Amino acid sequence: MTPIYIGYYFTIEPLQPATEILIAELGYEGFESFVETEKGVDAFIQKEEWNENILNDIHVLNSDEFDITYTSEEIEQVNWNKEWEKNFTPIMVDDICSVRAPFHENPEVAYDIVIEPKMSFGTGHHETTHMMIQHLLKNHFEGKKVLDMGCGTGVLAILAEMKGAELVDAIDIDNWCYLNTIENVERNNCKYITAYEGDSSLLVGKQYDAVIANINRNILLNDISVYTGTLTSGGNLFLSGFYKEDLEMITEECNAHNLELQESIERNNWIAANYRLK
Known about the structure:
With 278 residues, the protein is of the alpha/beta class. Helix content is 27%, strand content 33%. It contains 7 helices and 14 strands.
């Protein structure tokens, strides 16, 4: 029997970071598929998992920072693969790294990453992921131990291994992201990536030559000290998920932990920064 779904169609202003927050919160409530649109996001949940109070604990809907409206309807059948394929186009970063789906043609570049993002973040379409890929392309990872914190689809962890990392830990607090990372790691024939479900408490006793964290400003500010504690001398901390106006406070926190800004990239007011431990 084909399951019946309830579809919610959200209009969001401004789009980020509200869209990512909304998807994460809806995921915890049982929504199982999302399609990002030009105006916001469409979200779907099986009717048997739905109740009329399903949005009561979605805190971002009550935020003064964003204007979010929505409509909803009952849907008898949804072809998720078709919806996803319709909205996911391949991307190219600096003409040497592609991020594409299995049904896209192989562009024959140095780094060809094949993913099926499903409900996870990190297709490369968002500015932060795109810029983090740029940072990774510019830096050396041969023989290094790397952490991808908030790994989403695992795309950054996969690129780190492709660039020669000998060990990569990929961590995400979201179960769907954790499972999706495992799937994408296998799809790209990676041998040195281990995925974990959890938060920064998993980092106790760990040590890395490079830490990648594409999350959001508040989590970064809270966990920079934890990330620094795992870095080897001269190690790099790559951060994104925040706006241009937040760079100063992020850098101040990094400076307080003996990290020095090496380079920052800006894209549509989003920032990705590379810090080095002195």
